[in-house]
Amino acid sequence: MEILLKAAAIGIAASAVGLVIRKHNSDMALMLTLAAAAAMLVGTAALISPVLSFINELAENAGISTELLSPVLKAVAISIIGKVTSDVCRDAGQSALSGAIEFCAVLAVLICAIPLTRAILVVLKEVMQ
Known about the structure:
With 129 residues, the chain is mostly helical. It has five helices and no strands. The chain has two domains: 1-46; 65-129.
């Protein structure tokens, strides 16, 4: 909760300052946006460890290989990175670039899902026989 409040404060402050700066220098406003987004991502990185630990615990208790959970975690990371970078590009007025990043992120998630899909197919074949 504390990290969320800090991220929200950074976001609101950066937005307010960015609005003022944008009138005079749009390049500096973009750099402020990038710096604020980076600060928030770095600040929230500490939240990843307990989540990963819990997911590993669940997988262990359920008897699921962590290799099956890896694509899911990669897909989440790709989605977060794609969303943040896409929003920054859109904020900079580069909507075509933003759309391209979103498209690349979707394709990367689909590629990450291939091993998981294959594993599901193997299980289904075993059940069907």
